[in-house]
Amino acid sequence: MRKGRYFCFLVFCITVFLAACGKKKVEPGVPLQDVTTEYETEGAVRAVAALEDGTVFAVTASPSGYKFDRFDGEGKCVDSYILDGYVNIDSIVAAEDGKIIYFAGQKANSIHLYLFAFHTDTKQVDELCDFGMDIARARKIVFLEDKMYVMGQEKMRAGSFNNNADYDFSLGDTLLCCSMEGGEYSNLDFEYPINIAESGKGTLLILAYFPNEGYYFMEHNPKSGSVKQKVKLDHYKFDDFAVCNNGNSLLYDYVGNSRGLVLADFDNLDLEIDIYMDSLIAVVSDSKIWYENGRVYLEDASSQKLVGFPLDDVQKENRTVRLVATSELSYIAPYGCGYALERQEEDWDKIALKVLAQDQDYDLCMGSSGYARGLAMRDSDVLCPLNDVPGIEQYFDRCFPYVREAATTESGEIWMLPFSANVYAMLVHEERAAKQGLNLHNNMTFAEFVQFVQGLSEKEQGMFYMYPKEIGDDILGKYFGHYTSVQGEKFLDYMEGLRALYQKENLLNPPGDVNQEILLCTIEPFGRFPMSLSYLGRKGFSVYSIPKGEDLDKNNVTLYYLAVNKKSKYKEEALCYLADLIAYLMKQDELLIFKDYKTEVGSREEQTHKLFENGEVFFAIDEDIYQKDYVEVLKSNQPLEEYAKEVERRLQLYLKE
């Protein structure tokens, strides 16, 4: 009997030990900000080259002209040289010892393009090759096997080729090869090259277009002169790129890409890994990427400074995590922190059903408190608790209390990580309002605002640009966040007020373009996008709270969040990603849901932060309850008492589900 007990105890210990060994401990990685070096550049960064010891050379352009800067490994400028008499410098190559910097450009008094050698010790510039008028600009140069490959552009040759191609070939991209010994050059036989980069294997990688075939990466061997296909692209996406990971991966960005600089392997170009969020390339089409000696360099969109970081410290090696989100939320997805995230897009109804049904075909889901069924997901016990994710307690300590409350179940489990937030507010031009004698003020009640709008004359048409539905969605969303019935006068009062606003719809939302010179008031979202974008073209405006009921005195803050599938096969990878994301967000100091968000007194940033300070999260109910038809009811003559009875019936059925 005693031996049997010992045996059972031994089996139990072994089982516990094996279970503990199999569980991966979630540890946060080093935040991107901690491995990024910012260089003291002044002016637009046009070209970069780097040495193994961390020395960086950069060409910058400003109204005063072009100059070379030399930086140490900490980003401090240790030497500068004004390039008097040289213009249109867009690419440089450094010799291994750093004593010579090769660059292509024009002399100020010549229309020819030249290849030059700049000696860093003597500051002497030697002319190596005269390309004449064959090319007017060198977008990139690559040095291989005593040859300089020049990706140039001829003068405008508009209309020479179109054929419905995605890329604009009117500038006449041309690929030349220059012998460094004799200074002679020849044209490589590519009719429509787009750009080049060193492959990481001693060969030249060429992105080119072939009529009737499409876009290809071609590999040119400088020793043999042979060319072979490497991979075909489904469509044109980017022109500038860098090659990394021993020639196996690409670094690139493209205009309109909300995720910044991404990395993709040649054998799976559909899987794009986020490497750096604030790339200037997504804003300025001719910005560039550089990869030298294991480090990535680019111009940061926020600081407009050159930054660099080691790729190995940013790129993660993980089994691919499947992230499902709506197409709307895909545009505001958080930084991927170097993880391989396979992004899937679905309608929210399908996502919610997938979560509630405990499907195993996703690992992470992205949601919004403005989407229905969020509370059902929270209370269903199908999501992985996040309480043990490193840094999450410190993260919520910085957030306003209502953020933690929304992310926590009654039993104390953290069910989601909010990574962004949004609040609607009025932008009001106080000076114009005063001149018109219009009493618009902050924290107006809904009743006050309705009375104000009813007193507006037709002469003021065009001074407002706001949809009544924005106000309606906000106030009704808050109402159903507080009340579980529409019995009583409050709901009818709000509906009567909204009906009055819709009677002035043409005034509040005038047809045609808005005259920015006389615009007085508009409603805008804040927090979802960078603050600079929210205020773009809105000089002279102040941020006011959107009108709200006296009983609904909080601002309706929408949270965007990530949640982890409890039954995911790659749950540990997903949790590791959240730990890294938290570390990244904690270093950003730019979340408006942070209590310690830094603002200047009296600034619009402070006004906006106060909206979040007086915020509350209201999880949406199913749109079938009221959202899908309330606008039609307001625009019709249907009695509101009759509509209220129907809403009450739907609401009670919904609450019983």
How would you summarize this macromolecular structure in one to three sentences?
This protein is an alpha+beta fold and 657 residues long.
What does this 3D model show about the protein?
The protein has 657 residues and is of the alpha+beta class. 25% of the residues lie in helices and 29% in strands. It contains 18 helices and 35 strands. The strands form 8 sheets. Strands 26, 27, 28, 29, 30, 31, 32 and 34 form an 8-stranded mixed beta sheet that branches. Strands 6, 7, 8, 9 and 10 form a 5-stranded antiparallel beta sheet that branches. A hairpin with a 2-residue loop joins strand 11 (137-144) and strand 12 (147-153).
Q: Overall pLDDT, averaged?
A: 90
Quickly count the helices.
18
Spans where pLDDT lies below 50 across 5 or more residues: 1-23, 156-160
Helix amount: 25-40%
SS-based class: alpha+beta
Characterize the largest beta sheet: strand count, sense, and whether it forms a barrel: 8 strands, mixed
The Rg value, from CA coordinates, equals: 30 Å
Overall 3D form? elongated
Span between N and C termini?
53 Å
- What is the number of beta strands? 35
Which percent band covers the strand fraction?
25-35%
